[in-house]
Design a protein that fits this description.
- The protein is mostly helical.
- Helices cover 78% and strands 0% of the residues.
- It has twelve helices and no strands.
- The protein has helices at 2-21, 24-44, 55-69, 71-84, 87-92, 98-127, 135-163, 166-182, 195-203, 205-217, 228-231, 233-259.
- The longest helix is centred in the middle third of the chain and has 30 residues, at 98-127.
- The radius of gyration is 19 Å and the shape is globular.
C-alpha cells in the first residue's frame, strides 16, 4: 500500500512537471471555459430568464460540471498517447502497482481541471456570479465537482485503454459529450422543452450533478418538475458519481493489464 502510494505520487509529480514544460496545455484547458463564462454570461445572460434569480448565477454550475466532464476526453487521449509512445510498456517492466500509472494520469488531469475551475470562479465572480450559502455547502459543492472530474477521468482512462486510438476517442467523445452536456439542465431550464425531451433532460445524470451544485451554492435551479432526481439532486448526484468511480477504477485497472500487454 505504501509503495503504491509512493509510486502514484511520483507519477503525479511527473505529469505536473511535464505541464510546467508545456504550459500550453493549461491555456487550452482554461481558455475555453472562461470564454463560455463570458459568452453565456453577457450575451445569453441579457436574453435568458430563469425563475428565481439571474442567468449568470444559473449558468456557472453547468460550466463547472462541463469542465470536469471534459476529463473524459483529456484522460482518454493522454492514456492513448502513453500507450502509443511505449511509456506504459516501460512502466510495466518496473515493479510498480498497475493502479499507480492510472492514478498518476487521472489525478494529474483532475488537478489541471481544478485550476480551470478556480479561474472560472474568479471570472464568474467578476461578471456577477455569487454564492448564497455557507462555507460547508461551498466545500460540498466543489467536492462534488471534484468527484465528478475524478469519475470522468477514470472513465476516460478505461475508454483510452479500450480504443487505443486518438481518432476513435475523438469520434466517441463527439457522440457522448454533446448530448450529455446540451441535453441537460446545464445551460437551459428543461421546463421550456417538449415533454419527451424534458424527461430525457431531467433524467440525464449530468443534470443531477448540476442541480446539486446549484442547490449547494444557493443559485437559481431548474423548477417545475416533480421527478425524483429533480426533487433530490444532492443524494442522486452523490450516488451516481460514487457509482461511476467504483465501476470505472477496477475496470480500467483490469483493462490496463491486458491492453498494455498486446
Amino acid at each position: 500500500m505504501t509503495e503504491s502510494l509512493s509510486d502514484s505520487l511520483a507519477l503525479i509529480g511527473r505529469h505536473l512537471r511535464h505541464l510546467a514544460r508545456v504550459p500550453e496545455r493549461l491555456l487550452s484547458v482554461t481558455l475555453m471555459p472562461v470564454m463560455y463564462v463570458i459568452v453565456f454570461g453577457f450575451l445569453f445572460g441579457s436574453a435568458m430568464q430563469v425563475e428565481g434569480g439571474d442567468y449568470r448565477e444559473y449558468i456557472m454550475a453547468g460550466i463547472f460540471a462541463q469542465v470536469m466532464l471534459a476529463n473524459l476526453q483529456t484522460t482518454a487521449v493522454g492514456v492513448v498517447d502513453d500507450l502509443r509512445n511505449g511509456l506504459v510498456d516501460r512502466f510495466r517492466s518496473l515493479p510498480m502497482s498497475r493502479y499507480a500509472v492510472l492514478i498518476g494520469r487521472t489525478v494529474s488531469d483532475l488537478l489541471l481541471s481544478s485550476i480551470a475551475v478556480v479561474v472560472m470562479a474568479v471570472v464568474g465572480y467578476l461578471i456577477g456570479w455569487r454564492v448564497h450559502t455557507g462555507l460547508g455547502n461551498i466545500v460540498a459543492a466543489f467536492g462534488l465537482l471534484l468527484l465528478l472530474g475524478l469519475g470522468a477521468a477514470w472513465l476516460g482512462a478505461l475508454l483510452g485503454l479500450s480504443l487505443r486510438n486518438v481518432e476513435a476517442v475523438s469520434a466517441v467523445m463527439s457522440m457522448v459529450m454533446m448530448p450529455l452536456t446540451f441535453l441537460s439542465s446545464a445551460f437551459i431550464p428543461p421546463s421550456g422543452l417538449p415533454g419527451w425531451l424534458q424527461a430525457i433532460t431531467v433524467w440525464n445524470p449530468l443534470s443531477s450533478v448540476v442541480e446539486a451544485v446549484r442547490q449547494l451554492f444557493g443559485n437559481p435551479s431548474s423548477v417545475g418538475d416533480s421527478s425524483f432526481p429533480a426533487l433530490h439532486p444532492v443524494p442522486v448526484a452523490m450516488v451516481l458519481v460514487a457509482a461511476m468511480i467504483a465501476l470505472a477504477m477496477p475496470l480500467a485497472a483490469r483493462r490496463y493489464r491486458t491492453a498494455s500487454a498486446r
